[in-house]
Amino acid sequence: MPFPYIHFFFLGIFQVMLDLIIVVHFLPNFQILLNHQILYVVGFAAVLAGGCPLRQLILAGQGSSDSAVTFLGMLLGAAFAHNFNLVGSAAKAATATDAAVPGGPAMPGKIAVIVCIVLLFVIAATNLRRKKAAK
Fold it and tell me: Where are the beta strands (DSSP E) in the chain?
């Protein structure tokens, strides 16, 4: 098999097509498009890490040091995202004194999602080359 992560490439193409359909029909609600991209990042990162985050937590509890480091990395990543305003904020309804505020991630969070997608493909390609060199 020349490129074992090829299904993620095609999944990414499908994701882009799905996002375009969503944008055409729900253009004012850009949040739906961003939610699809965020979950694509979560799924791709989970596959590269060897399983979903809950599986990593269970394996860490069973004594797997690789899973423990992965889980600590997820905790540090969440702390990093909250400290540098990469996470979303809740929407607030209008009151008598304040206007309504739409929720969702700030611009740095939107940029971080795109950077993560590119970074995950770089990690996958690097590991693929390393695996080919070992053969």
Answer: 88-89, 104-105
